[in-house]
Amino acid sequence: MPQFTVATGGDWELHPEGVFPATLVDWVPIEGTYQGQTTERIQWKFETSEEREDGTPHQVSWFTSYKFGSPDQTGDKKSKLRTLCEMLGVYVPETNEEAAEFNPSDLVGGQLRVKIVHKENSEGNMRAIIFALMPLRPAKAASGTKAPAAREQRNMASAAAQGAPRPQPAAAQRARAAQAAPPPDPDADDPFAGDEA
After folding, report:
1. Which residue from 14, 31, 79, 131 could staple onto 117, CB 3.0 to 4.6 Å apart?
2. Statement: 18-136 belongs to CATH 2.20.28
């Protein structure tokens, strides 16, 4: 049987700083105390592409509340749980009824990128923390600007909930438009076409 030990003052291997692909491998409900009140949170555990000296993947955690927040919130006011879902490209519940059906285990296996920074904790030990979450590959809108895939999913779910015909994803719309377009003129790109003199 292995012997139990206690990590003291920086015995652990610090994850390097930078941006790394990461996979969500587990989630754990935790309780804590903040400003004298008991709080319930979720610890989301990620394995990154970075390996420890023993060849095992590094693990880092992201902590959220159980609240999705409003889609109108941005920046520091934005819910960390909403951010997690958006960066994983999954639908974010918009109503309490939808939120009641949310299963955190459905996110396990999801991939994204994490920005890791080093920060000193209250005991003076350096820790590696997740500073930001980013999609694994940013989605591109038809105009070439970046757009979160979650927005398209939300729009589709909202239309379906209201009984409207389900909107097609942008990629499907572009494919149909390309099929409906007349075949290209082979001479259209030739600046000398028609100049056979």
Report:
1. 131
2. no
